[in-house]
Design a protein that fits this description.
The protein has 100 residues and is mainly α. The protein is built from five helices and no strands. It is 80% helix and 0% strand. The longest helix is centred in the N-terminal third of the chain and has 24 residues.
């Protein structure tokens, strides 16, 4: 899954305006929030915890217009708890986003 910067970076830029420092802080806040929920998702041992972490990821993604992450969160919600494929794809998304 390739990270697509379009809508997510546009949302961050709109929120930050001309403030480059704020833009970077927002990117970092998004990255940290996703990482925290992804960690909870990966450590989920019951359906309810999996669902809650996936819903939180979807909410974070929707707040920042991160379409690829929204789709992955929906896959997690529709699939089996603990699905290693969706976890790997979410981790790849985060790694690519953080590398940019």
């Amino acid at each position: 899954m390739a990270y697509e910067a379009g809508a997510l970076d546009a949302t961050l830029a709109a929120a930050a305006g001309d403030d480059g420092v704020l833009f970077l802080e927002l990117r970092q806040a998004f990255s940290e929030s996703v990482a925290r929920q992804l960690d909870l998702l990966a450590r989920s041992r019951c359906d309810a915890n999996w669902q809650m972490a996936a819903l939180r990821l979807k909410g974070i993604a929707a707040s920042f217009h991160a379409e690829a992450l929204i789709e992955l969160a929906e896959e997690a919600l529709e699939g089996a708890p603990g699905d290693p494929r969706v976890l790997r794809q979410m981790q790849a998304f985060l790694a690519e986003f953080s590398a940019v």
